Amino acid sequence: MTLIRLFFALVLLSATGAFAQGSPRVDVYKNAACSCCGGWVEHLRENGFAVTTHDIDDVPANRKKLGMPENLGSCHTAKVNGYVIEGHVPAADIKRLLKEKPKALGLAVPAMPAGSPGMESSRPVPYDTLLVDPKGSTSVFASH
């Protein structure tokens, strides 16, 4: 009986590990009082990302530590597979980044545009997701 339990435990661990490896892990650094960050986290989870949140007091200092330029700042910063993600970047853009693997610092949606994930609005505005190179220069990665 013990061997059967051990076998099923190993099968369960193996299946769980395979699922975890298939889901990109995102670490989100945000202020505990920010509700729109929670909306963005939920958007990522709904799109298959494994998300861990870290409530911090100084989001700008963390952004600087991760190398994201201040002028691209928003209300939260995240890390996924070595990339920095700043602001309300759509999950589809992050998936594309992870698939294409450009040499870059990461992606940014500066400020908090209405209509971006977590900032749902009846009056959305057009916005761009920017690809940020290692030196902080940007180019348009996607337009929404």
* CATH fold topology: Glutaredoxin
**Pattern of helices and strands:** HEHEHEEHEEE
What fraction of residues sit in β-strands?
25-35%
Distance between the termini: 57 Å
Strand order of the largest sheet: 2-1-3-4-5-6-7
CATH A-level architecture: 3-Layer(aba) Sandwich
InterPro entries: DUF411
Pfam families: DUF411
Organism: Candidatus Accumulibacter appositus
Protein name: Metal-binding protein
Note down, in words, how this protein is organized.
Keywords: Signal. Residues 1-20 form the signal peptide. InterPro entries: DUF411. With 144 residues, the chain is α/β, with parallel strands linked by helices. The protein has a single domain, classed as Glutaredoxin (3-Layer(aba) Sandwich). It has helices at 2-22, 35-46, 59-66, 91-100, and strands at residues 25-30, 50-55, 76-80, 83-87, 106-109, 128-132, 138-143. A 7-stranded mixed sheet has the order 2-1-3-4-5-6-7, sandwiched between helices. Strand 4 (83-87), helix 4 (91-100) and strand 5 form a beta-alpha-beta unit. The longest helix is centred in the N-terminal third of the chain and has 21 residues, at 2-22. It starts with a helix and ends with a strand. The model is unreliable at 1-20 (pLDDT under 50).
